[in-house]
Design the sequence.
């Protein structure tokens, strides 16, 4: 008799091994790690071996905490990768994506959920909140490179770095906007009379202003404290040298936990904290060590989650899906996000090829799993589950994430490779323009 415990060891051992080996094999190929993980999980759990497929609906608390851990580690890594100093002007594309593109995406998803699917207004808002954010975990093929790479490559004249910066910074900060809408759905679900608007004050003051402000301030303060520890207390023993880079994980857990304790948005605090640490010693080589450790942990956790997701697919996660919901899922990925992204980037300094990539690669993934499981675990939504059928929401979100993993995973490397070739051909023109203007233009200054 085979012990299911030992079978689980084999499954997760293969997932971790793949996380280490596959990146060497898939570089510049029309395939991505997430596709391999999800496919492997489907096959592994479809084989009869005594371990049943995971149930994301029944085990939503486990899903919430596991995806929560993956996302916060990814947010720390995303913050450490950004080589562009923080400024309102230099981060112009980010503000456009957060302030225009994301609200448009949420609004479109709410409308489709309410008008087409006939969902309760609270559930429609929840659908908009969970499908709108660009995922920081699954965007490895298009996110910014390791720390110091953009500094060394003169990003002001390289549109490729502007594309990667835009998507990385958006994925890092969009939780500050997605979480308030997730909480809006929870508040609406609990409201006895949503039309009375009595809930507006609570949501605006607490879930928007207080939690965002506390999250930002906690990230700044704790990030600065972390920078002091990392760069003012250098490693002086073999043990500390052997654990080099582990500060990225410990800092992530501490910042997130401390911020959540005082009621702020921990996701936002982790990313802001990483930005503050990154600014502490701008061109210090140790940032590469921190990033490598964060990436290693993130890839291992991502492998486990996506293998389990593949197993959930094998267990029938998509069974409640209808053709209408398939159409809505594809529309959200292929129409709503690209259109909202294009509108948000109108008038930006990005070239049109750059805008097309940023607008189209709003990858949906593990963060969306967290938001949905978190909301459905709330008491106010537990009462609505009989009406909205949690299985239906999980099926729709599972399809959106699966479609994003496949579509974006297949196209990311070829698109970015083609974009790099275009950039090399047009770079002399951009350099000439930059020299003629006396300085290189920032994202929001000129069109190309």
Sequence:
């Amino acid at each position: 008799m085979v012990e299911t415990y030992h079978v689980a060891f084999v499954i997760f051992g293969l997932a971790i091994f793949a996380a280490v080996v596959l990146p060497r094999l898939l570089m510049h190929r029309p395939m991505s790690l997430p596709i391999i993980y999800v496919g492997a999980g489907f096959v592994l759990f479809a084989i009869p071996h005594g371990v049943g497929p995971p149930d994301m609906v029944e085990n939503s608390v486990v899903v919430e905490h596991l995806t929560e851990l993956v996302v916060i580690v990814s947010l720390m890594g995303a913050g450490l990768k950004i080589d562009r100093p923080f400024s309102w002007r230099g981060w112009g594309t980010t503000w456009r994506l957060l302030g225009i593109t994301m609200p448009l995406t949420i609004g479109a998803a709410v409308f489709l959920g309410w008008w087409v699917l006939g969902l309760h207004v609270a559930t429609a808002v929840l659908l908009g909140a969970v499908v709108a954010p660009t995922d920081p975990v699954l965007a490895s093929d298009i996110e910014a490179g390791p720390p110091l790479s953009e500094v060394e490559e003169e990003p002001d004249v390289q549109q490729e770095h502007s594309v990667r910066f835009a998507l990385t910074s958006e994925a890092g900060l969009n939780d500050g906007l997605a979480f308030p809408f997730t909480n809006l759905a929870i508040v609406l679900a609990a409201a006895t009379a949503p039309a009375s608007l009595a809930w507006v004050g609570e949501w605006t003051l607490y879930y928007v202003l207080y939690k965002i402000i506390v999250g930002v301030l906690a990230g700044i303060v704790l990030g600065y404290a972390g920078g002091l520890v990392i760069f003012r207390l250098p490693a002086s023993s073999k043990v500390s040298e052997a654990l080099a880079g582990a500060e990225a994980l410990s800092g992530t857990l501490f910042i997130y936990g401390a911020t959540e304790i005082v009621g702020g948005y921990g996701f936002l605090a982790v990313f802001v904290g990483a930005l503050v640490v990154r600014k502490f010693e701008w061109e210090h080589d140790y940032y590469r060590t921190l990033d490598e450790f964060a990436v290693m942990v993130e890839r291992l956790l991502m492998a486990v989650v996506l293998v389990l997701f593949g197993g959930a697919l094998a267990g029938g996660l998509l069974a409640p899906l209808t053709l209408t919901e398939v159409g809505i899922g594809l529309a959200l990925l292929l129409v709503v996000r690209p259109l909202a992204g294009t509108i948000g980037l109108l008038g930006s300094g990005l070239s049109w090829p750059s805008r097309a990539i940023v607008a189209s690669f709003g990858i949906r993934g593990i963060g969306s799993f967290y938001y949905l499981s978190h909301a459905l675990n709330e008491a106010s939504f537990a009462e609505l589950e009989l009406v909205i059928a949690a299985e239906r929401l999980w099926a729709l979100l599972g399809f959106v994430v699966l479609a994003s993993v496949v579509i974006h995973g297949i196209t990311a490397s070829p698109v970015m490779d083609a974009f790099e070739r275009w950039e090399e051909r047009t770079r002399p023109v951009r350099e000439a323009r930059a020299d003629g203007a006396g300085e290189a233009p920032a994202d929001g200054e000129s069109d190309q």
